[in-house]
Amino acid sequence: MSTARERRVQKQQQNFFHLHLISDSTGETLLAAGRAAAAQYKNARAIEHIYPLIRTEKNLEKVFAGIEEEPGIILYTMVDQKLARRLDEWCAAAGLPSVNVLEPVLTVFQAYLGTPAGRRVGAQHVLDSDYFRRIDALNFTMEHDDGNLPHEVEQADIILVGISRTSKTPTSIYLANRGIKTANVPIVPGVPLPDALIAAKGPLIVGLIASAERISQVRQNRELGTDFGDSVDTYIDKTSIAAELAYARQLCHRHGWPVIDVTRRSIEETAAAILDLRKKRRTGGTYGS
Length: 289
Fold this sequence. Notes:
Elements: H1 4-13, E1 15-23, H2 28-38, E2 44-51, H3 57-69, E3 73-77, H4 81-94, E4 98-100, H5 103-113, H6 129-143, E5 158-162, H7 168-176, E6 182-186, H8 195-199, E7 204-209, H9 212-220, H10 232-236, H11 238-255, E8 259-261, H12 267-283
Parallel strand pairs: 1-2, 1-3, 3-4, 5-6, 5-7, 7-8
């Protein structure tokens, strides 16, 4: 049995890496495969970047921009062979590993059945009203990521707010895969929140926070740009992060938005907690602490 000291050392030694998951459909199959592989490495934690509904060259260019900012492992499921080749070629030129998760399986099926696959995007899904609701939610969530189109946030079912690196985007996409239109808005000290967010009455607004230590670790393992206008040292400094978190808590308290600490929660656990808050809100219950 490991001692408390050994567990602390193991935690300190944990490394973070970027995992880019690119799908021409909802991305559920890919997400499960990526997490199953990542779970085998106890001292490495994946920072997930999920790109669903990538079906055109234009979509792919946006993905490339995201990967360039935060390089890592690329897993994808795309039945369009032209797009798959384009992605492979780009990754090879960038010196990054890429795996078409579906292709080896299709190769085995083709060899055994003696006929090529039909190459139908999203063929595993039943095209019913639930499926189209999920696709609609995914489109909305992608368009309203990271504070984009703030004047439309009233159309969301759920809005997530929080400082940088509190898992807003992956949680939003997870909820969208369940048919819930989710927008997310960053909290940046000194930058006013959109008026439409403050005035929103329909959506459930939830604040996401994490420990300063976890956020600092995650921020250190990303390729820093100039999004926040701060120096790298300030961006990863635990004291500065603690001040950001205090500011975020104050905002949420002022507006009566419930807060969830994601430090020790998986994306699934965070989403479940949000859905529980949504259920309580619909039934007239209280949020609790």
